What we know:
Layout: H1 2-29, H2 40-58, H3 62-68, H4 74-99, H5 104-119, H6 121-131, H7 146-161, H8 169-185, E1 199-200, H9 201-217, H10 223-236, E2 248-250, E3 254-255, H11 263-274, H12 278-292, E4 293-294, E5 300-301, E6 311-314, E7 318-321, H13 326-338, H14 342-356, E8 358-361, E9 364-367, H15 374-384
Antiparallel strand pairs: 1-2, 2-3, 4-5, 6-7, 8-9
Amino acid sequence: MKKSIFSNMGCFIYICILFIIFVIIKAAWVRHFDSDIESFDKEKIDILQRRNYLIKKIVTEPQTLINEMPTAIGDQFQGEWALYSCSMLVKSLSNISLLYPETKEGSIVQIDSLISIVLSPEIRWYDTLRWGEDPLTNLDGDNSHISYLSHLAWMIGNYKKVGGDGKYDELYHSLCKTMSRRIKASDILNCPTYPGEYIYVPDMLVAIVALSEYSKYYNGKYSAIVNQWIHKAQAEWLDKNTGLLVSCLSELTGIIEDMDVKGAYSALNCYYLALIDDKFAKSQYELLKKYFIKESPIFGLKEYHNYSPILGFDIDAGPILFGLSPSGTAFAVGSATYFGDSVTRKKILKTAEIAGSTCVWNEDRHYLLANVALVGEAIMLAMRTTVNFSMTVSK
Length: 395
């Protein structure tokens, strides 16, 4: 057993060394990348071709999609990653339909298909596995199921946003009613993703985003619980060392005093907050940059604000090299795009090109790493297209 462990570790280190060499070579090659990301007009071909690739890979049979996720991460995370791939592609399509209005009709059709995939028993299975019951068959019950329900509700909200019909309205009402009731029933206004685990704040924020967007369609319904949650977040759930919203909460005690915030969770928190509360989100984004930005050897977001391990791995952050968080770096693009921080956005997209290595085939485009983590490609497209339309799109 020990020999196997050390053999695997040696293989991991060898792969990392090769990857580092590749990154150094690629960094020298990527010189003129900035000129292609000066405006959304110039990015259009790149964005639409990445959309094409993701539609072909994700809009498929549910089990086929699950099989696209790495088997090594297990059934639960395969299901989570499949769900995230769908929800982030839906957000991408919603964003793209606003950036390029001629794509709206096609986006409605594709989002409809993605909702159908997420409604399938195959995708629901990861959540059923952990809770011991199907998340959709007991909406009157008390078990949380907050992650699955919130992503589904968020997807339906985006379907309505781009002009979809009322086919999911009854389900939408039920999902948001259930989430609101379960959140209110919690002593700390938060529901766990899974039984017996911490409350993961980014998962909760999807529910708050979904309820916030629902309130825009239905005369402010659920806006009170959204505002209450944001108020408590600002008053009670900020990390004492950084001022950032905490990564996790205890269902019994609330804030966990000895737990550091994580780069991936903090960047995702900032992204979701931008969809709810501009002012709070902007202050969080500035703190994120203050504590987590790492300038070298390549630009990106650290996973830990107080140290930078050369090698590491986290199921949410991905493989950590030189302290950099792949997921955190990708999620940070969302806030940078939303707040018009073109300098940070360009630097991160350049890092993505160095590490990811774009492949182009016919009308499809994707990072080479999408062959390993398809969800990362979907996340990046959603993040880089999350524009605040109160600002100038062409900035």
